[in-house]
Amino acid sequence: MLGLTASVIGILVASLASEAATTSIKTTPARSSEAYATLVYGEDFVLAARVLGQSLRESGTTRDMVALTTGSLKASSELTLAADGWRVVHVAPVKNPGTGPQPTGFPPRFAYVYTKLYIFQMTEYKKIVFLDADVLVIRNMDVIFKCPGFCAALRHSERFNTGVMSLVPSLEMYDDMMAKMRSMPSYTGGDQGFLNSYFPSFAHSPLFDPETPYTPDQYKAAADMDSKSALQPVQQQQQQYMRLPTTFNADIGLYVVGSNRWMLPRSSLYVIHYTLGPFKPWVWWSGWLVRENPAWQAYRNRLRADSRGLSGGRTHRQLFAERWMVLLPWAVVLTAICIHWSVLAPALLHAATTALPAVSHLVVRCRRTSGGPGCGGGGCGGGGSAVATGAGVGALSLGGAGTDTVLRMLGSSAAGGGGGCGGGGGCGGGGGGAAGGGMEVFPKYFMAGSLAAGYGCVLVAVITTILIVPSEVEPVYGWILSYEWGFMLLGLTYGSYLRTCYRWGRRAGHIAALQVPKLHSAPPLPLLETAASAAFLVVSLLLAPWLGELLGITSFAGTIVATVFIGLGVIVVSTVQFVFLPTQWYLAGRLAGSGPRAA
């Protein structure tokens, strides 16, 4: 424990020390006449920008790489970007004027996307190619600098996407954009909608073909064919346009909905644009749907060490999660077992000594009664058995182990009263005749409360797991951490509720009609039933995300359907168990009660 504490403190101290030791960097001058540029909005986009830079470097480009930032980055992050080869440029943030169709004009994440327009005034370069941070360059794309004037790829019919743009900077055009920014509508509420309004005739521009051996003058002549559109404002009529082919802006969303297949040969693509909403490649769970994420992760793993000495784009928070958070759930489980060993040991011994004989007994009875009621809807017990009283008690319990003994006694005691564990409403249903008439077994609304408590525990476990597992961890660690912490938290919270039901039953008092059989020296705990339910839940949730892959399903819709199918099955069984298990623990508590409940 002391070693774990020392390691955690060491990681935190190293993080603080590295941050304190860094200083702000100064913008370096341009090194070439053309550049790739991206906008790093905040710390959340630093890793994305680093991977973009890594892909550009590995493509063999000789152009500058410029990272625009509004000063919201830590000094250590700016130093890391500079060490990666980015020319870090501080720009003033441009607030969204709110001209979109939304009630507030724009989604919250678009608050400062108009800052991207700064690239139009970067006149220290003859040509700028802007790339969103969620872009991955998979082969050298320097040929895009041959595209004259303003170039972008059409995405939604006549609309172009601003995630990849080639342009010639112009102070006059930038000033004109700033003047029109508040009055010109934006269909997205951001820079993309604004630029589509600013260049209204772009959809009519000719297609740029990188495979055609045009000279720069020939490209300009092709672009000039449609530049002087009557729809274009006077100050823009000298601007040249060309449409970029899909290979320069391959939309990952179309890849996913196309059953994880590209419409073009992958070898022909220059860029993969990860546009699919929250499924960004740096979010560990997004690879469940996006099969191109491993390509992005491969570039990430090749990142050089940052200013804090961490390689592979890792953070101290990520290292803490991958080194220590993986072990912590196991430590908690072992601690809980040690604390409750005095209770668990006798129960486990009892379960071990009764489970096998009970199973053998059931097998013999099933063989004897084959062709009769036998192993039918009422469980393995035959027609007149108390075990078969009520459809399904025998099926839900594990053959005489644990609280099945309680249910047998409850069925026997209620045989003459029409209540008990019967098909007419479960254990003690209809106001209960568990004690031979007139005495309620369960408190009012016990079943509904147990169901709410079960799903409440699930909700707490899921939300807590989402909050504590860092989104930037590697996918394999993300799944391991989520399963470990989710199951541990659910086990602790729901296990506490079951123990509460047991204590609640003890306080309610013993039911005189129920007696512990002579074979049992102490009231049995329903551990086998609980363990079986937990095992089903664990196996089902482990399989849920991967069922489609196990079945060979690669399409987006098929994966969703397979996951929903197994998820619905888990919900149905969990609903039954969230009612059944608390009743077993409550009955076990009542059986162990010290005396009859006061009238």
How many domains, as an integer? 2
Poorly predicted spans: 1-9, 11-24, 226-231, 372-403, 412-438, 595-599
The residue-averaged pLDDT reads 77
CATH superfamily of the largest domain: Spore Coat Polysaccharide Biosynthesis Protein SpsA, Chain A
What's the tally of helices?
18
Keywords: Membrane, Signal, Transmembrane, Transmembrane helix
Transmembrane segments: 324-344, 445-470, 476-497, 527-547, 553-581
Protein name: Hexosyltransferase
Signal peptide: 1-22
3D architecture notes:
α14 (about 445-470) packs across α18 (about 555-590). Helix content is about 45%, strand content about 10%. By secondary structure, it is an alpha/beta fold. The strands form 3 sheets. It has a 7-stranded mixed β-sheet, with helices on both faces. Strands 5-10-9 form a 3-stranded mixed β-sheet. A two-stranded antiparallel sheet has the order 11-12. The chain folds into 2 domains: about 35-225 and about 230-315, Spore Coat Polysaccharide Biosynthesis Protein SpsA, Chain A (Alpha-Beta Complex), CATH 3.90.550; about 315-340 and about 440-599, no CATH class. Keywords: Membrane, Signal, Transmembrane, Transmembrane helix. InterPro entries: GNT1/Glycosyltrans_8, Nucleotide-diphossugar_trans. This is Hexosyltransferase.
What is the structure about, briefly put?
By secondary structure, this protein is of the alpha/beta class. It has helices spanning 2-21, 46-59, 75-83, 171-180, 191-198, 216-224, 252-257, 293-301, 316-325, 328-339, 341-368, 393-396, 404-413, 446-468, 475-508, 527-543, 547-550, 556-591; strands at 34-40, 64-69, 86-90, 127-131, 135-137, 150-156, 159-167, 241-243, 250-251, 271-273, 375-376, 379-380. It has 18 helices and twelve strands.
